């Protein structure tokens, strides 16, 4: 089985370059000032959590661009796209593989930030070459990209199955197949940025439970590793899960025949309580304007 292809490789590194350019051009001057100020104030220990957060954002942007560019170049492998090389899609296995590979790179950067980068910052600051910090960060990011891609492909190969086809996804929505804890997580990750269609209470609330459990575990790890400096891993997980969480919220509202735009109410104090009521509502039985829906799914929250 072909693991990857030249078009997918090109899409990955082009996505990485674009993401790096976006971060360093838009945020680079601000980051340099932050790093220099922390060095002068003796708060060098904060460089590590800040670096991890920036890396997490960078990898998140990279993945989104990678999927889009891969489809543009018709380089999507069959195990991910279900046979369509121009499909802008991913799978739960591929997303998990990318998260694992990127977390390994963030861990590597953490080691560099903790033991190598501070001394380099001090040296550049003393020599008056603070402008070289961006160049160094760019070089480190490029090196991590060269290491990350083979790891990503290897882990993706070990992941089970290809992305579910449109028919298999629709069978869950329309035929009311049962969904459990693992099924809800897989569905939400496979529909990473799908805002169309409907979602049952089981799908939504199981995914909420998954996020809560994940954040609790990561909070414990953050407290042990970063000693309360910053909840780095929690923030990274929140960034990675923001889009699928928003998408399943919109689909859950659709199940009650409510426009997904009402999710914006959550930004208004007190009015967000209406969202909780709608999210707990059993939803419309049978079809509504947003599709057939999961109305026949046995709901463990009934």
What's the story with the biggest beta sheet? none
Secondary structure tally: strands: 0
Q: Number of domains in the coordinates?
A: 2
Uncertain runs are 162-178, 295-302
What is the radius of gyration? 21 Å
What is the average of the pLDDT values? 74
Distance between the termini: 45 Å
In what range is the share of β-strand residues? under 5%
Write down the secondary-structure element order: HHHHHHHHHHHH
Percentage of residues in helical conformation: 55-70%
Tally of contiguous helical segments: 12
Q: What form results from the Cα inertia axes? A: globular
Instruction: Label the structural class.
Output: mainly alpha
Quick overview:
With 302 residues, this protein is an all-alpha fold.
Structural description of this entry:
With 302 residues, this protein is mostly helical. It has two domains: 1-163, no CATH class; 164-297, no CATH class. Helix content is 68%, strand content 0%. The chain is built from twelve helices and no strands. The radius of gyration is 21 Å and the shape is globular. It starts with 5 loop residues before the first helix and ends in a 22-residue tail after the last helix. 33% of the residues are buried. Mean pLDDT is 74; it is low at 162-178 and 295-302.
Explain the layout of strands and helices.
Layout: H1 6-26, H2 28-41, H3 47-72, H4 78-81, H5 92-115, H6 117-126, H7 132-158, H8 166-175, H9 181-190, H10 201-225, H11 232-255, H12 272-280
Helix pairs in contact: 1-2, 1-3, 1-7, 3-5, 3-11, 5-7, 9-10, 10-11
């Amino acid at each position: 089985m072909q693991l990857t292809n030249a078009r997918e490789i090109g899409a990955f590194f082009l996505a990485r370059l674009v993401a790096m350019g976006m971060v360093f051009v838009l945020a680079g001057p601000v980051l340099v000032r932050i790093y220099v100020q922390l060095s002068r104030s003796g708060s060098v220990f904060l460089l590590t959590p800040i670096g991890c957060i920036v890396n997490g954002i960078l990898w998140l942007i990279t993945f989104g661009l990678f999927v889009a560019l891969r489809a543009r170049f018709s380089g999507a492998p069959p195990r991910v796209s279900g046979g369509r090389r121009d499909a802008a899609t991913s799978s739960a296995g591929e997303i998990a593989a990318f998260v694992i590979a990127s977390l390994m790179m963030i861990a590597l950067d953490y080691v560099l930030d903790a033991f190598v980068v501070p001394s380099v910052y001090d040296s550049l600051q003393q020599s008056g070459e603070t402008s070289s910090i961006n160049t160094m960060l760019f070089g480190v990011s490029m090196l991590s990209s060269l290491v990350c891609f083979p790891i990503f492909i290897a882990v993706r190969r070990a992941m089970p199955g290809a992305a579910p086809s449109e028919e298999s996804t629709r069978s869950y929505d329309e035929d009311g197949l049962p969904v459990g804890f693992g099924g809800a997580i897989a569905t939400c990750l496979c529909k990473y940025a799908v805002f169309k269609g409907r979602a049952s209470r089981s799908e939504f609330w199981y995914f909420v439970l998954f996020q809560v459990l994940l954040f609790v575990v990561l909070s414990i790890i953050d407290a042990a590793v970063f000693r309360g400096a910053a909840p780095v891993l929690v923030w990274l997980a929140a960034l990675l899960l923001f889009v699928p969480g928003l998408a399943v919220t919109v689909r859950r509202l659709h199940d009650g025949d409510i426009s997904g735009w009402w999710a914006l109410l959550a930004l208004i104090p007190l009015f967000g309580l209406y969202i909780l009521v709608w999210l707990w509502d059993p939803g419309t039985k049978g079809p509504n304007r947003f599709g057939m829906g999961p109305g026949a799914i046995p709901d463990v929250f009934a």
